[in-house]
Design goal:
The chain has two helices and ten strands. With about 110 residues, the chain is mainly β.
Length: about 110
Amino acid sequence: MIKITIGPRVFTATLDKGPAADALRGMLPLVLDMQELNGNEKYQDLPDDLPTHASNPGTIRNGDLMLYGSRTLVLFYKTFPTSYSYTRLGKVDDVTGLEAALGSGNVTVTFEME
């Protein structure tokens, strides 16, 4: 599990098993200035590429933590259908308040081991 801190709010997320999630664990802690995109996600490029195994999930879920390409970390805060492919990294355990915490603009997010 990892801890995701957004301002005063702290969320936990469970990372998947696999090379990409393992590589992300190895980068922690990370403090990222995440950019707003499409009113449903925050994203930021990581310092290094991660291994990929991209597929189209069909539906993105609120709280999904995904990798777009080999380097862009994406934290989704709304559920919606998608035609894009991502490497799944994990999911926020309880999304209550996630959208409000992330807000409508760019935000600093800290990812660290719990």
